[in-house]
Amino acid sequence: MNTRLVASVLSAVALASSLSACASRSTVGTVGGAALGGAAGHAVSGGSTLGTVGGAAVGGVIGNKVSK
């Protein structure tokens, strides 16, 4: 497995975990979705910036809608 991918996923999990203690459910859903979407976009696009940002944007929207 690619080292950058593992680092990205672990960073996303750490960020989502740290925010879950001090934010509303909607915020946690949005941030968690963006973090996981960014990691997924990075993996699918082969590490391109556009894929990572696009994945984060889509993941954030989905996370926000699911958490409501």
Helices and strands, with pairings:
Blueprint: H1 3-20, H2 25-44, H3 49-66
Helix pairs in contact: 1-2, 2-3
Radius of gyration: 12 Å
- Uncertain parts: none
Number of strands: 0
Percentage of residues in helical conformation: over 70%
Number of helices: 3
Q: How many structural domains can be distinguished in the coordinates? A: 1
How is the main sheet built? Answer: none
Output the structural class.
Answer: mainly alpha
Chain-averaged pLDDT: 81
**Spatial separation of the terminal alpha carbons:** 34 Å
Topology pattern, helix = H, strand = E = HHH
Note the overall shape: flat
Strand content: under 5%
Domain Glycine zipper 2TM: 28-66
Organism: Noviherbaspirillum aridicola
Keywords: Signal
Pfam families: Rick_17kDa_Anti
Structural summary, described in words:
With 68 residues, the protein is mainly alpha-helical. The chain has one domain. Helices cover 82% and strands 0% of the residues. It has 3 helices and no strands. It has helices at residues 3-20, 25-44, 49-66. The longest helix is centred in the middle third of the chain and has 20 residues, at 25-44. The model has no long low-confidence stretch (mean pLDDT 81). This is Glycine zipper 2TM domain-containing protein. Residues 1-23 form the signal peptide. Residues 28-66 form the Glycine zipper 2TM domain. Keywords: Signal. It comes from Noviherbaspirillum aridicola.
